[in-house]
Specification:
Structural class: mainly beta
Helix content: under 10%
Strand content: 25-35%
Mean pLDDT: 93
Order of helices and strands: HEEEEEEEEEEEEEEEEEEEEE
Radius of gyration: 16 Å
Largest sheet: 9 strands, mixed
Shape: globular
Distance between the termini: 40 Å
Number of strands: 21
Strand order of the largest sheet: 1-3-6-9-12-15-18-20-21
């Protein structure tokens, strides 16, 4: 299901028949694959790829040329800037002290331009991952990551990469 505005005016947008796209802010050339759900109020840029089984909540912002692999949930308050890569089953959070049926404090998370998040990594709320930084697979990011830095482990710590 896709907003009728896109069906009529933008044939470059692809939404798989089993996906739900309720947002009116999805850029040209973006592809939303099977069993994914993009909520009304989510913003997705141009030429993005939203992998199978992903969920983009209202209030999430995704830049241009972003790749979101399968099984990624992007919650309200999370911003993925241009050219970000998010590996399969990476996890974003937006509440540092979650409790059922209790008000929560929304903490904003930002992944800067060109950064990559490895598969299965967890990004805690309120964290900024710097431009062109790399978060290794399975890492748990509990603090900001400086631009260009490679971090791995739990908690995520800098490592000496073998290639750029």
């Amino acid at each position: 299901m896709v907003s009728p505005a896109y069906e009529e005016h933008d044939p470059s947008l692809f939404v798989h028949p089993s996906a739900i796209c309720e947002s009116d802010s999805v850029g040209r050339g973006t592809r939303i694959w099977a069993f994914s759900h993009v909520c009304a109020g989510a913003i997705i840029g141009e030429d993005c790829n939203v992998g199978e089984g992903s969920f983009i909540e209202a209030g999430a912002r995704i830049g241009d040329r972003v790749t979101i692999k399968n099984g990624v949930y992007v919650w309200e308050g999370v911003t993925l800037e241009d050219e970000v890569f998010v590996g399969p089953n990476a996890t974003f959070t937006n509440d540092l002290y979650p409790r059922s049926k209790a008000p929560f404090e929304l903490l904003r998370t930002r992944v800067r331009k060109g950064a990559s998040i490895g598969g299965g990594a967890t990004i805690l709320p309120g964290v900024t991952v710097g431009e062109s930084a790399l978060v290794g697979a399975g890492a748990v990011v509990v603090a900001d990551v400086s631009p260009g830095l490679v971090v791995v482990g739990n908690p995520a710590r800098p490592t000496n990469p073998t290639h750029p």
